[in-house]
Design goal:
Elements: H1 2-15, H2 18-33, H3 38-52, H4 55-58, H5 63-85
Helix pairs in contact: 1-5, 2-3, 3-5
Length: 88
């Protein structure tokens, strides 16, 4: 399971633009230096991403899809955040 998870993290990181990954790592480092734990940093990053992306708005012409994505977006954003800050 751990090898599979590491493989998934690598796939996610390949899909994220390098500059965006760098900015998120910089933010995470500042938050960690400020005393937050990695878990707290992940939650902060998830909150930031979630506030920027509104699937109900993006899929306003398909409200069921937007609503469904809003139900799971935190899980996806959390996985992405963990993948990015894993080695900080």
């Amino acid at each position: 399971m751990k090898k599979m998870r590491n493989g998934i993290f690598k796939q996610i990181l390949k899909a994220i633009p390098e500059e965006d990954e760098k900015r998120i790592k910089e933010l995470a480092s500042v938050l960690i230096d400020g005393g937050l734990t990695k878990d707290e940093v992940v939650e902060e990053i998830v909150d930031i991403i979630d506030s920027l992306i509104d699937f109900n708005f993006i899929f306003s012409d398909r409200p069921l899809i937007g609503s469904a994505l809003e139900q799971i977006d935190g899980i996806v954003f959390r996985f992405i955040a963990k993948a990015i800050i894993k080695n900080i």
